[in-house]
């Protein structure tokens, strides 16, 4: 797959285009607004076209006849649906993805079949971001929690805390602390520089450690890096938009949830729609409001409005006033690097959180899941291995016999219900789910080729 047509140059479209260009795909992006396209054309090696995404003539001019994949992420659900139908009927584009936000449409999956709007995969960014945030509530010590093999294994990013068992210890110490728990530290970032870990690597306070383990063992590994933290009970959300509403709906039965919303009509609607959430009308940057709502007793504060500055300011204020942990949605991805790990504990770019679910459909081979790490700089992939020793470069080989590209690390194998942490002698079998950490995105294509079935297998 090499020719990709993107409709819509908003945050998601632009972020995906940038990722794919860096991975040497041929990308064309269409938008009605030339001002959205100009910075992309100036900065990236891609083709831009000003035009309406639902016009057959515009799609033809954009090269739809030669496209391998269509990604429709304009702001309008209806336009994305129509574009997919035109792509299918007139241009026979093999794979078609559309962003759909409207719950009424999402509740009618029959609309997306080939006989109707011909959408292969529906992307709902608000739900993807909500699921991401829920995973951070379940594992509040983590910076990132990623599921693989249907939740059997997880890759977790954790920051080493002063006084934890592993503070100042080498990685070999983990074997003594956790003799019966197999896990793999796949990467360490210290002051934004990657350290390739081995048993002699000594952990320091502030190190960002990525490790992979069977899900039931995650908590034990975290305890050695962070110590024991109090359970989450009280959660405050600022912003009752799509993500704020979905998150409150998910959490309200298990936690004490407060939701702050500035818009009067929206607050009234939320109060009715969320009977187990305390909805407050007000501004989350109002110190008096936070004080009156006892923000110092809040275990977890989420800033989820559509305004980056408001999210930054309210998170900083909540933290200063005593909130235990703050998580902010930041749409400008450059801000994310500046803010994460300071007064704001976790900063999330919704576009980058969404990209993984799109990239899984772009990758060649049987790729089940793709997760962007380190704000898009690295990637974790789950690939199902197929073939025989005659048709595959990896089946029947031990891991230390496989020449992985630079920066790629095979972290684990899921075989049936068993999670096997990768060791040099581990043999790869057909139908294994392999989980890989790829530090350098330039080597993604090499990884795909290594795990692909050789031509002639079919």
Description:
The protein is built from 15 helices and 22 strands. It is of the alpha/beta class. It has 4 domains: 121 residues, Rossmann fold (3-Layer(aba) Sandwich); 86 residues, 2-Layer Sandwich (Alpha-Beta Plaits), CATH 3.30.70; 119 residues, Rossmann fold; 89 residues, Alpha-Beta Plaits (2-Layer Sandwich), CATH 3.30.70. It starts with a strand and ends in a 7-residue tail after the last helix. This is Trk system potassium uptake protein TrkA. It holds the Pfam family TrkA_N. GO terms for molecular function: potassium ion transmembrane transporter activity. It comes from Iodobacter fluviatilis.
Reading off the top of the CATH hierarchy, the class of the largest domain is best stated as Alpha Beta
Task: State the end-to-end distance.
Answer: 18 Å
Q: Determine the mean pLDDT.
A: 89
Query: Total helix count?
Result: 15
Protein name: Trk system potassium uptake protein TrkA
Domain RCK N-terminal: 1-123, 232-348
Keywords: Ion transport, NAD, Potassium, Potassium transport, Transport
Domain RCK C-terminal: 143-227, 368-453
């Amino acid at each position: 797959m090499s020719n990709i047509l993107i409709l819509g140059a908003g945050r998601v479209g632009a972020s995906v285009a940038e990722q794919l260009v860096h991975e040497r795909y041929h990308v064309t992006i269409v938008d009605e607004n030339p001002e959205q396209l100009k910075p992309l054309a100036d900065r990236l090696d891609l083709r831009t076209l000003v035009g309406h995404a639902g016009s057959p003539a515009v799609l033809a001019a954009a090269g739809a006849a030669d496209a391998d994949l269509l990604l429709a992420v304009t702001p309008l659900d209806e336009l994305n649906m129509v574009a997919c139908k035109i792509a299918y009927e007139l241009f026979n584009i093999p794979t078609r993805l559309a962003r759909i936000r409207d719950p009424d449409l999402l509740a009618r999956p029959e609309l997306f079949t080939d006989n109707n709007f011909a959408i292969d995969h529906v992307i709902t960014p608000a739900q993807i971001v909500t699921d991401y945030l829920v995973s951070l509530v379940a594992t509040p010590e983590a910076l990132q929690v990623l599921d693989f093999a249907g939740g059997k294994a997880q890759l977790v990013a954790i920051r080493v805390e002063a006084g934890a068992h592993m503070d100042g210890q080498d990685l070999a110490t983990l074997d003594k602390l956790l003799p019966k728990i197999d896990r793999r530290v796949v990467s360490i970032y210290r002051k934004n520089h990657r350290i390739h870990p081995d048993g002699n690597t000594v952990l320091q306070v502030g190190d960002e450690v990525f490790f992979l383990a069977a899900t039931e063992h995650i908590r034990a590994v975290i305890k050695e890096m962070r110590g024991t933290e109090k359970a989450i009970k009280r959660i405050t959300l600022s912003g009752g938009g799509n993500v704020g509403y979905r998150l409150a709906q998910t959490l309200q039965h298990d936690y004490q949830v407060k939701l702050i919303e500035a818009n009067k009509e929206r607050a009234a609607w939320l109060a009715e729609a969320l009977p187990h959430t305390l909805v407050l009308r007000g501004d989350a940057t109002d110190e008096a409001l936070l004080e009156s709502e006892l923000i110092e007793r809040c275990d977890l504060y989420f800033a989820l409005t559509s305004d980056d500055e408001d999210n930054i300011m309210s998170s900083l204020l909540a933290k200063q006033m005593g909130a235990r942990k703050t998580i902010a949605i930041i749409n400008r991805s450059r801000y994310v690097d500046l803010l994460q790990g300071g007064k704001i504990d976790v900063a999330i770019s919704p576009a980058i959180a969404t990209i993984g679910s799109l990239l899984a459909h772009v990758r060649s081979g049987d790729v089940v899941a793709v997760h962007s790490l380190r704000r898009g700089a690295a990637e974790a992939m789950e690939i199902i291995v197929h073939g025989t020793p005659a048709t595959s470069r990896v089946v029947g080989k031990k891991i230390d016999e496989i020449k992985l590209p630079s920066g790629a690390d095979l972290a684990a194998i899921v075989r049936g219900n068993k999670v096997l942490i990768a060791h040099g002698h581990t043999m790869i079998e057909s139908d294994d789910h392999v989980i890989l950490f790829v530090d350098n995105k330039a080597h993604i294509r090499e990884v795909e080729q290594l795990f692909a079935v050789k031509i002639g297998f079919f």
